Amino acid sequence: MRCRMNRSTGVDYLEPFEPGELVDGLEGIGVVEMASPACNFEVGDLVTSVGRLWPWSRLFVADHSDLVKVNLPRGYSPSIILSCVGISGMTALLGIRKKAAIDPTKPQTIVVSGAAGSCGSLAGQIARLDGCTRVVGICGAPEKCEVLMNELGFDGAINYKAESVPDRLRTLAPDGVDIYFDNVGGFVSDAVIAQMNQGGRVVLCGQIAVYNTNLPYPPPIPEKTAEIIAERGIRRYSAW
């Protein structure tokens, strides 16, 4: 969403917001209020979108072919469709399963920046389930660090606003970093990449540190970081 506030979004599947237009997003969930006889929905059905932008409004008219009914298990909030089962969950799952190349037969360390966000928090948990033996998260508040370690199963967390990322990383990842799930970019990513092992993998999910700058997306890599990537054979992939 943030990239759509720029003149260029940096991607070919999203257009920037225009002044005066209704704001929309990549996903949504709602309840059918009225339904034509020709569609397969009934009033009261819980639905979500398939391949369409979802307007930020209380009511809107949609073509039934753009919607799919949601059969929510008892006890689950509809918001799960926008998180674990939504774009955040799919991005984390695809990034880890398809790009991180975790080898469950070997000890491996993953570092996740933006780790307390909707995507990063899931990426760390999926990496643990897929075999990473050490999961370290980077975020920006002590409360977030507590959640990562006490509720989400991370082995360690770094508050980049109050701690030295390089120093803490040497403590929490003494054997180096094998996989980096990058939501942030900027100095945090430079610090992590500097401690990555030979043949490491970077999964590029976001670059929130530079969204308010005039840099293109993805932003250029500092010369020193580029040298490390080349020397150590580190591979960088888009999460999608």
Automatic annotation (TrEMBL):
Keywords (alphabetical) are: Oxidoreductase
- The Alcohol dehydrogenase-like C-terminal domain covers which part of the protein? 120-208
Any one Gene Ontology MF annotation carried by this entry is: 15-oxoprostaglandin 13-reductase [NAD(P)+] activity
> SUPFAM superfamilies from the xrefs?
GroES-like, NAD(P)-binding Rossmann-fold domains
Q: Which GO terms describe its biological process?
A: prostaglandin metabolic process
Gene3D superfamilies for this protein: Medium-chain alcohol dehydrogenases, catalytic domain (3.90.180.10), NAD(P)-binding Rossmann-like Domain (3.40.50.720)
Catalytic activity, EC? 1.3.1.48
Q: Which Pfam families match?
A: ADH_zinc_N
Which top-rank group of organisms is this from? Answer: Eukaryota
Instruction: Please name the InterPro entries in this protein's record.
Output: ADH-like_C (IPR013149), GroES-like_sf (IPR011032), MDR_fam (IPR045010), NAD(P)-bd_dom_sf (IPR036291)
State the top-level EC class.
oxidoreductase
Annotated PANTHER family: PROSTAGLANDIN REDUCTASE, PROSTAGLANDIN REDUCTASE 2
Name of the featured protein:
15-oxoprostaglandin 13-reductase
Give the organism, scientific name: Anisakis simplex (Herring worm)
Lineage of origin:
Eukaryota, Metazoa, Ecdysozoa, Nematoda, Chromadorea
